[in-house]
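so my prof wants the structure for this chain in the tokens format not the other one, which i didnt know existed until like an hour ago. anyway here's the sequence
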Amino acid sequence: MTASLSSIIAQPELSPDRRAHRGLVTVCLAFLLLSAALVPVPLPLGWDEIVHASRFSPFGPGVPFSAPWTRGVPFFLAPVASWSGSVVLLRIWLLTRAGGAHYLGFRPWLGVVRRPAAVCVGAGTYAIFWSVLFYANSAMPNHYAAMGTCAAVGCSLRSRYLGIAAGIVVVTLMRPNDGAALAEPMVLAALLVPQWRHGGRIAAVAAGSAAGALPWITEARIRFGRGAQRLAEASDIQGHMRPVMSLDDHFTALDGPLLCRPCTSDGIDAPVLLWWILLPLLAVLGLGITRRPAPLQLVRP
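here's what i got, hopefully its the right format
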């Protein structure tokens, strides 16, 4: 017994990588608990959530599933919504999926930055935003598109091609336009940056984009005749898709409400606007810190 206790005491401390990994897991668990405490799981489904959930008979009858909607969120709901109409059970399921997506989104970055603890800081900073906490147990694509993007970029920096494809699949399933916005700069980076110029990276982006877009393309051909017709109908429903200057809308939405159409009655909160000034500075500071040599670790004899 004494020898066993001595061996435990004499064990070397955890490596920085192991500590960072445990820290990331802790941050993800804290994210789940905080979201569960602030956003009650019995909260009734919103309209967009009803559209997604009503694809399944327990939440039916189904409301119209028009051209702009995609099948990504219903895929995530299927394991529960296909057999149970409980909103509480559905939100608990989504909350656990959100925690898993949070972990998988930031996990690749532990092998990218020189100071892995910075990943915990980034994951924690992301998780404390109210919009992130609110949507954690929601049947909405926001969080999953964000984490798929985070994972795909992290895997790209580590040349993990399967991870690149998986991340792009998730983003494209949730929102095909977001998937395209992610895939295009990744392909350009693979073509322009010499150390990233590898056919495997481009193939992973192409495979992920194709797999993620396949349900949208198939449905477009079956229900709308062709993809161009579906895009045209989606544009009409959404008020005509075109480039717009929407910075003022983003500034307004930072302090709520989450949804307002139109938002003419809401103004821009100056203290919240400071985030847009601080975030680039914090990003530069974070890059500077992670580029410094890691401190020398002393190993016990």
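also thought this was worth mentioning. The CA atoms of residues 233 and 239 lie 10 Å apart.
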